[in-house]
Amino acid sequence: MRIAIAGGTGTVGRHVVTATREAGHEPIVLSRSNGVDLMSTDGLAGALSDIDAVIDVSSTNSLSAKQAVRFFGTVTENLLNAERAAGVTHHVTLSIIGAAHANSGYYAGKAIQEERVMRSGGAWSMLRTTQFHEFAAQTAHRRSIAGIQIVPAMRSQPIAAAEVATTLVNIATGVPRGLEPDLAGPRQENMPDMVRRYLKAAHIRRIVLRVPLPGAMGKSMRDGGLLPSPSTRIGTQTFDQWLASNDWTRGGTDGHISSRGS
């Protein structure tokens, strides 16, 4: 199969490209660095010529609800329209557990993405996951002021991005099934504590300051609104195992605010 990966150079996207190859399929990366602007319709249908499935793991760094809605709404519509024009028969979306209910900040964009896909009338599958382990590293490289690490108050049950990628490829190579069972990591964690452990592993000395974020998004992060239900599928790699599997002497890694990233 030829599988197009929207956002194939991002945190989970790189893993999706690897998982696609390891499964014996051909990955086609849709990103600006490869000449494809997902915010534009120019040439997108042509880029999807002879593609069997699209996996959308595109993302934005903005936490603004307005910008997130614009990004995810535009990219989703552009992809779905281009897929129809090119005859692509399976659209796979990665979303975040609880994002549609939080519907604020970044999650407002994911809520719009989910709505557009579900109402598209096409053949789609959607996987919702918890945050990635990489989120701790991203936070550490994002909010540091004069040796103080600012970390949002957040409860999470992080999942390995590589495990998410393998699941997405398995979904893409099957028949469209709509909403897939959710996927989460094996242990519930506290985000400030995760960042402390990452900083220690990366030999970075900083004081971690826990900061409650305002609004519906901050409340969901603090109160467990982004945690999985008891019946959720569980991955295998813990955050500590992920830390141990990386060589932090070579520098940090980027992460995914959603799902994780979202």
Short précis:
Helix content is 38%, strand content 18%. It has 262 residues and is of the alpha/beta class. It has a six-stranded parallel beta sheet with strand order 2-1-3-4-5-9, with helices on both faces. Strands 6-7-12 form a three-stranded mixed beta sheet, with helices on one face. It has a two-stranded antiparallel ribbon with strand order 8-11.
Characterise this structure.
The structure is a single chain. The protein is an alpha/beta fold and about 260 residues long. It has a single domain, classed as 3-Layer(aba) Sandwich (Rossmann fold), CATH 3.40.50.720. About 40% of the residues lie in helices and about 20% in strands. The protein is built from ten helices and 13 strands. A six-stranded parallel beta sheet has the order 2-1-3-4-5-9, sandwiched between helices. Strand 6 and strand 7 form a beta hairpin. Helix 1 crosses helix 7 and helix 3 runs parallel beside helix 5. The radius of gyration is 18 Å and the shape is globular. It starts with a strand and ends in an 18-residue tail after the last helix. The relative contact order is 0.18.
Q: What is the average per-residue confidence, as pLDDT, rounded to a whole number? A: 91
Beta-strand proportion: 15-25%
Give the biggest sheet: 6 strands, parallel
End-to-end C-alpha gap = 26 Å
**How does the helix and strand content classify structurally?**
alpha/beta
Poorly predicted runs: 252-262
H/E topology pattern: EHEHEHEHHEHEEEHEEEHEHEH
CATH homologous superfamily caption: NAD(P)-binding Rossmann-like Domain
| Count of DSSP-assigned helices | 10
CATH topology: Rossmann fold
